[in-house]
Amino acid sequence: MTFDLFDNLDAPDDGHAAGGVREPLADGAVVLRGFARTLAPQLLDEICVIIGRAPWRHMITPGGLRMSVAMTNCGQAGWVSDRTGYRYDPHDPLSGEPWPVMPAAFLDLATRAAADAGFAEFAPDACLINRYEPGTRLSLHQDRDERDLRAPIVSVSLGLPAVFLFGGLRRADRPARIRLAHGDVVVWGGPSRLAFHGVAPLADGDHPLLGRERINLTFRKAM
Ligand code: SIN
Ligand code: FE2
């Protein structure tokens, strides 16, 4: 007999989110445990389609370093980095084509998660898709290339678990270390919108759906 913890919760209104626990991180920031679990297989199918049109790539930082995280995007704009800087671009620089349309299931998940975290009006127009392999890390940074900082960031974790680093508004603030598993969603906005965050080097493992990978989706209101 198989037994799934989250399938057996009644998802009461207080303290629980779509079958998982709601875990406050800071003022304006919360982890919604398991929020994307049941939708994950569908999200992964959509990601396969997106990758067919806008393949994974390792972007170059303005300083000339190759990022260890592989990235692509969907939506009306995609986050890109090259020698000239960071920006949102309506076109994929590799193909010159618009980024793949954001699937309805992505949009629905992101708006529901934002609403659950207290951001009712979230209308994301960009989704950055990150792929981590064992050893891949993302150094502490702020998401500050978006035009409207009133909108939150919604981040969906799939595949191998990661240690998410969530700090304060100053780079020097020591970050909390939060384990994020397959299906967990983090939302940060309001007073936490410009919090420094990152991902510790990914530990090796074997995930039933994603093998030796972690994929993260971050939804933003970019334009
Ligand atoms: C990001 O900061 O863009 C991604 C965070 C994550 O992979 O959890
Ligand atoms: Fe980020």
What CATH architecture do you see? Sandwich
What share of residues are in beta strands?
A: 25-35%
Give the averaged pLDDT, no decimals: 93
Poorly predicted regions are 1-16
Cofactors, ions and other ligands in the entry:
succinic acid, fe (ii) ion
N-to-C terminal Cα separation, in Å? 48 Å
Name the overall outline. Answer: globular
Name the CATH homologous superfamily.
Alpha-ketoglutarate-dependent dioxygenase AlkB-like
Order of helix and strand elements from N to C terminus = EEEHEEEHEEEEEEEE
Protein architecture, described:
The protein is mainly β and 223 residues long. It has one domain: Jelly Rolls. The chain is built from 2 helices and 14 strands. The strands form 3 sheets. An 8-stranded antiparallel β-sheet has the order 1-2-3-12-9-14-7-4, covered by helices on one side. Strands 8-13-10-11 form a 4-stranded antiparallel β-sheet, with no helix packed on it. A hairpin with a 2-residue loop joins strand 1 and strand 2. The longest helix has 14 residues. The N and C termini lie far apart (48 Å). The N terminus is likely disordered. The site of succinic acid has 9 residues, from strand 7, strand 13 and strand 14.
Features:
Jelly Rolls, mainly beta, disordered N terminus, binds succinic acid, globular, 14 strands, 8-stranded antiparallel sheet, 223 residues, 12% helix, binds fe (ii) ion
